[in-house]
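Record 1 of the preview.
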Amino acid sequence: MAEPWVLISLILITLGASLATQIVNYKLIDQGATRKHKKRLKEIQRQIRTVKNPKGVVKLQEEMMKINSKMFKLSFKPMIITIAPLWIMFFLLQSAYQPYGDLINLPVNLPLFGPAISWLGTYIIFSLIFSMILKPLITRLGDKYAKTQ
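->
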């Protein structure tokens, strides 16, 4: 296992990358349109449960597909903007952290990971954790700030 500062530095880099990505997403995605689409999707899901007519279900599913397509288009621009810096960061992280080998030793042998987790697995795990925490936090803070303006 690598020294603790190696793991801590990777976690901090992951936090910074997750924070930057979430901020870019919040700034570039139309939050009002996203909320409207999500609300409509929930309504359609409720309607699908109550509709008995198969043709009615198909019609609702087609509407869901159109809304999901619109939501994908909304998120495409931030994805294009963040993907190049993230790829560069991955190459830099690989060259910096690969020599340290496994960063986290596990008490059990996990499928896909084995008995230890490398820099990439560590980055992915902490990125998921930070994104789950930061996305709602940034959305709430951004909405609160927008209301005060």
